TrEMBL record:
Transmembrane segments: none annotated. It is an enzyme of class 4 (lyase). GO terms for biological process: DNA repair; sporulation resulting in formation of a cellular spore. This is Spore photoproduct lyase. Gene3D superfamilies: 3.40.50.12110, 3.80.30.30. One of its GO terms (molecular function) is DNA binding. GO terms for cellular component: endospore-forming forespore. It comes from Salibacterium qingdaonense. It comes from the Bacteria. CDD domains: Radical_SAM.
Amino acid sequence: MVKPFVPELVYVEPRALEYPLGKELKQKFENMGIEIRHTTSHNQVRNLPGDNHFQRYRTAKSTLVIGIRKTLKFDTSKPSAEYAIPFVTGCMGHCHYCYLQTTMGDKPYIRTYVNVDEILASAEEYMQQRAPEPTRFEASCTSDVVGVDHLTHTLKQAIEYFGKSEHGKLRFVTKFAHIDHLLDAEHNGRTRFRFSINSEYVIKYFEPGTSRLHERMEAAAKAARAGYPLGFIIAPIYLHDGWKEGYREMMEKLNKALPADARKDLTFEMIQHRFTKPAKRVIQKNYPMTKLELDESKRKWKWGRYGIGKYVYTNEEQEDMKDTIGSYIASYFPEASLDYFT
């Protein structure tokens, strides 16, 4: 059982203390006896403790920076939503394959933003531009926001904000089961609560520091009973020995765990494992003992956005994944929709 995240070290940006949540969090961590340091900006955290890269990386993953989000221009977030909404950057999980390792580079510490009202006001402007079309916001593009929300309640505030919204919908995905504080949020069905799930093999070897599969499924059942629309992201789909059986067992467990009323408006998303050349270098530096298969010769090269290519599975392997896991979804959850495979 992974305990809810508590930072070992906290940095505070001076302007964060101009916001009630900034003051409240500083007080909370002082009361917990956690060391608090000051930083001029959440992008400028220097001198993290540790004698080498390995130690500093692990220190960073347990460091929380309380800051403000200055850029209120949101990135687009396909295929799951129109826009990415930024409440948190970074993650306390240690998933070997995670793309945040490359995008965050030498700043793998976790940042939580306290100017939540400003972020939501910016979201409102995006909604108004598209009205009367609905606008979906993805809260998990650069973080696992649930992992830190038991401390900040930022996500809870956003869920209630979108609950009252006319044109906006919120969605996020998590590998953490610490969701009890979100169960009484007034979501009004406007937030889709998604869990990332995988075979026991992938979770065991590549997802340290996250909740186990049965914990995620129990949390999903709780979210469903609290009336949230539910979704599951099967990602990354990874071809290990016995993968077909591994993913079948995963779906069988999910079928047993989910209450009947959770199946009416259920979505699945499927994302195959992929990596880039820079990602491979970073993964092998951060997790030198990883069993993750990163052999370019076994993969197909695919041009990505921004001119960065990535290595994905071959066309035949992709078809096999889609057919195999797609058939499990169809047989266990015939009413669910499969939103995309990528």
